[in-house]
TrEMBL record:
Originating species: Yanghanlia caeni
Superkingdom, natural source: Bacteria
Terminase large subunit GpA endonuclease domain ranges (all copies): 2-135
Protein name: Terminase large subunit GpA endonuclease domain-containing protein
């Protein structure tokens, strides 16, 4: 695990602050969601909270827009979302539970994310916070291109087995796991 974001909103805010405070060097960050025109990851955290912890306000609107744009890509590869094979239909219903709506305030349009009553959206929240953690790592200087350079070359002339299902392995997986997943797709 490279990093994690822990949502400090809700009923146990102080416990969440206490949990994160001792783990900031391990890149377990206390966050809260912020709507409106905010960057996905702030330039610096706030310490103006009861726990005196570094608190990062994540731009959830920007993150959701980026996620939904990536979900629209139909081809695998750069910029597309890749999912483990064990995800079921309920996961994708949660991932796509929210919609953009527009309301008018004093005659000016304001866009906002709307979730129908009764719909669950935990998968989207988790994806937003994972995406925020990635942006936190990028702000610390993580270079994904260097990570790709350690991957073994993908076989070019070999065709996948007819019964093989493509597997996408997260960049945070160990190089050995990535090699195993890539080679398991070929006979």
């Amino acid at each position: 695990m490279e990093a994690a974001c822990l949502d400090t909103g809700g009923h146990h805010t102080l416990a969440a602050y206490a949990f994160c405070k001792g783990r900031e060097r391990k890149r377990i960050w206390a966050i809260k969601g912020g709507s409106g025109k905010r960057p996905i990851w702030p330039k610096r955290p706030s310490k103006a909270n009861k726990g005196k912890v570094n608190l990062f306000t994540v731009g959830v609107d920007a993150a959701k827009e980026a996620i939904y744009a990536r979900l629209k890509k139909s081809d695998a590869g750069a910029g597309a979302m890749h999912f483990p094979l064990d995800r079921d239909a309920q996961y994708f219903e949660q991932l796509t539970a929210e919609r953009i709506r527009t309301r008018y305030v004093k005659g000016f349009p304001q866009r906002f994310w709307w979730k129908p009553d009764g719909r669950r959206n935990e998968a989207l929240d988790c994806r937003v916070y994972a995406y925020a953690a990635l942006h936190g790592l990028l702000s610390m200087g993580l270079n994904l291109n260097k990570r790709v350079e350690v991957l073994p070359p993908t076989p070019v002339n070999r065709k996948p087995a007819s019964n093989a299902t493509p597997v996408t392995v997260p960049m945070t997986a160990s190089p050995r796991r990535r090699r195993m997943a890539i080679s398991s797709n070929y006979v």
